[in-house]
Amino acid sequence: MRPSFLARLVNGPLFDPVVFVRLLNRNTSLLFDCGRIGNLSNREILSIDSIFISHPHMDHFMGFDHVLRIILHRERPLNLYGPDGIADKVISKLNSYTWNLTGDYPLEVMIHEVRDHDILSRSARAGDAFRPSMPASSPRRGATIAMNPFYRVDASVLDHHMPCLGFVLKEPFHININAARIAELGYTRGPWIGELKGLIFAECMDDYIDVPTITGNRRIKVHELFMELVITSAGQKIGYFTDIRASGDNLKRIRELAGNMDILFIEAYYLAEREQQAHEKAHLTAREAGLIAGMVRARKVVPMHISPRYHDRIDEVMGELIAARISY
Length: 328
Prior knowledge:
Blueprint: E1 5-9, E2 19-23, E3 29-32, H1 42-46, E4 48-52, H2 58-61, H3 64-71, E5 78-83, H4 86-95, E6 108-114, E7 118-125, E8 136-139, E9 144-148, E10 151-159, E11 163-170, E12 174-177, H5 179-184, H6 192-201, E13 208-213, E14 216-221, H7 222-229, E15 230-233, E16 237-241, H8 248-257, E17 263-267, H9 275-281, H10 286-295, E18 300-304, H11 314-327
Parallel strand pairs: 3-4, 4-5, 5-6, 16-17, 17-18
Antiparallel strand pairs: 1-2, 2-3, 6-7, 7-8, 9-10, 10-11, 11-16, 12-15, 13-14
């Protein structure tokens, strides 16, 4: 199965935890945390639709200015999701600059504060010198904080001596195209396949698509193409958890949020030899990260945010994580 989400750890396991997720066949990407992002190209940054901030410590949030600099002339809005208080942090960053020449800029930043029972949203437009709107509250219905036809993001408020969000990115279902049937029916592969997937996700089954064939273009109903070519399967799931302690409440919330992960990005800040320090600092050990990976049935685990003290002991960190995952 070719994945719909292409996810990578931008800075590797040793530095600021940032995960960039590109949506295949779409000019859209998502960013989970936003510390140092120098390893992202301008083109990748321009494609970012939403940023999901776990908490506003510097190594998770300092890259917002970098993103803003690249996308300032963009027409598409930027959505930013973070824990309670994130709006004041973003607005303070915006207020630190002078915007007297942006009156005709279309960019809008949508800021969403995720709390246990509601989401508080504000917007700030470049054309208005990024003066923020009044906040609007919407109740949370379940764990979902962002959704469109192609994905949804669920979140839970966890503890890092401050609110810290854990995230799960989900594909509603996966669309597999039967390549052999395309040839049998005389169709020619092309961009229409991506259009077909988009219309299926959007539930536009009565729409029509121009399909190139060996004898010329044919206008075919989406539902007909679905019946001819499509096999659906369970959608892809990616988890992102960092800067939390392995407390009973945090583990309960993670268990309720996550399960059957295809990829789990998780911090492994300390080895178990410093478990008490990890608890005091509200971080995970590699052993605790491995136990969480086992708990959520993660097929692949990507450790991140490893303490600088272990930069020459990566194999030990990996070994401890894998052993705990297997033993769960």
